[in-house]
Amino acid sequence: xxxxxxxxxxxxxxxxxxxxxxxxxxxxxxxxxxxxxxxxxxxxxxxxxxxxxxxxxxxxxxxxxxxxxxxxxxxxxxxxxxxxxxxxxxxxxxxxxxxxxxxxxxxxxxxxxxxxxxxxxxxxxxxxxxxxxxxxxxxxxxxxxxxxxxxxxxxxxxxxxxxxxxxxxxxxxxxxxxxxxx
Length: 182
Known about the structure:
mainly beta, Immunoglobulin-like, seven-stranded antiparallel beta sheet, six-stranded antiparallel beta sheet, 2 helices, about 40% strand
């Protein structure tokens, strides 16, 4: 759980939603989007006119994973207010550092974070995992995909079988395991 301080500068109460999302990910207000796309955290809020309140923001499982990862995660902020639409300064989005001192949380079978949205198993390096994620993205496909990626540690190229949709799990190479959110 996180919190954010919101000040209502209106003459009527401020009613809206505060979302923290993965940068450049599909993330919208509404319950149908809470478990899809790149939502990391969010909360509805009501702040009385002229008041400042600390609003609790609930983290999603993905939010917990990226917040406890190495170096935290720079996330996108979306604020939508009833009768006003999207707000954050003068642009529809802003940026927010999402960090936690809690014990790391990883996707199933992952043992380490490479920072951001990429995680690895015990026999996999982060530079290789990042190459796998790039190869998957470059395949312009989703679901079950076979990719090849080079390992800076070994200088070899390996074949990886990838499946799933955000998270995507890839196995292959020499006992390699990579999981990432797309």
